[in-house]
Design brief:
Chain lengths: 219, 219
Amino acid sequence: MRELFQADMKSLGDQLVEIAGLVHEAMSQARDAFENADVELAEAVITNDARIDYLQTALDEKAIELLALQGPVAADLRTVVAALRMSSSLERMGDLARHIAQLARRRFPDLVVPELAREDFRQMADHAVTVSGEVEQLLTTRDLQHASTIAKLNASINELHAKNFATVSLPEWNAPAATAVDVALASRFLERFADHGVSVARKVTYLMTGEWEPVIAAD
Amino acid sequence: MRELFQADMKSLGDQLVEIAGLVHEAMSQARDAFENADVELAEAVITNDARIDYLQTALDEKAIELLALQGPVAADLRTVVAALRMSSSLERMGDLARHIAQLARRRFPDLVVPELAREDFRQMADHAVTVSGEVEQLLTTRDLQHASTIAKLNASINELHAKNFATVSLPEWNAPAATAVDVALASRFLERFADHGVSVARKVTYLMTGEWEPVIAAD
């Protein structure tokens, strides 16, 4: 029974890693589609999101089955409940990558972001891709150094998010109002994507240490 | 043991209703603050959100304790897991009401939305308030008529959300880009608020019927 339980717990962890890998791939492709107005790649991200949704549902069913059949307690129970929460965060990250791809598709053949904000968006999207890569690594290795990296990337993304709003108010900003709307939404999607990454990092940190906050190395 | 279990399950349901009541109050006040540039009311919504967050954490702890001590199975287990999910949706709804209040505070003493879009926003915010009232009623009574109402309100909100984006592109739109950004964000917050309401409605519907989709009356 105990061996079966350990195998089930491991399989739950593997499923989380698999979803995180797809989310990382989705954001990586969404960034490329967004920056290069690549409508085929955008379509691929949009289509592939269904796979993430399917795997989340499968993971949730597995977790509920594990709760029903094995009645875990203490740390094991918290791990299963955390897996349910993390699968939900990962599924939202997949949705947000899809939203970025949808913006790229909607503005094709134009780019979504005008020249004035493009460099900040490039950094922001790179950080978002790195966040999802770090989430995948964190779930694979449980090395909390990745949680710390995610927290730092999130702080940078929040700064860039605020900066994007300031950019729209600059006298040099001369794009149509609809472009300002797209910029606001894209910035919000990337910011939320990172928030969900932090949420996963906090749950892993809590499971490993009993503390909620990832330690951010002072550098 | 069974009686204790039933009492715990009832208490979990009561806690959800309490949080839903606070979310309804928060969105109702956020709407008023947003439409009247009432900065004190906006501050109240922002401050009171901490209470919703606290109650969500308390509910989650209760649910985990119930899983650990009572090991529910079958329908009871699904109800507890659904309660964890619904508390998470309600907490996000509280955050989104807070975001609406924060926009009102940021633009005070101006109104966030320019005249051209104000009537659509008035309807959208009223619908959002009604969604949260219906969520509270649904959780109180388990009468699926409320789930159907929530689905209909959400469809209207989605239409108004799309209309807001079209409004920003009209030739009559002459507000600064920063206003377009605020309008985009406010519209997105209301749309997401309703999405979370639908998410709660779907979970209650599933628990009551085994089906995922709330039935929308043909009218």
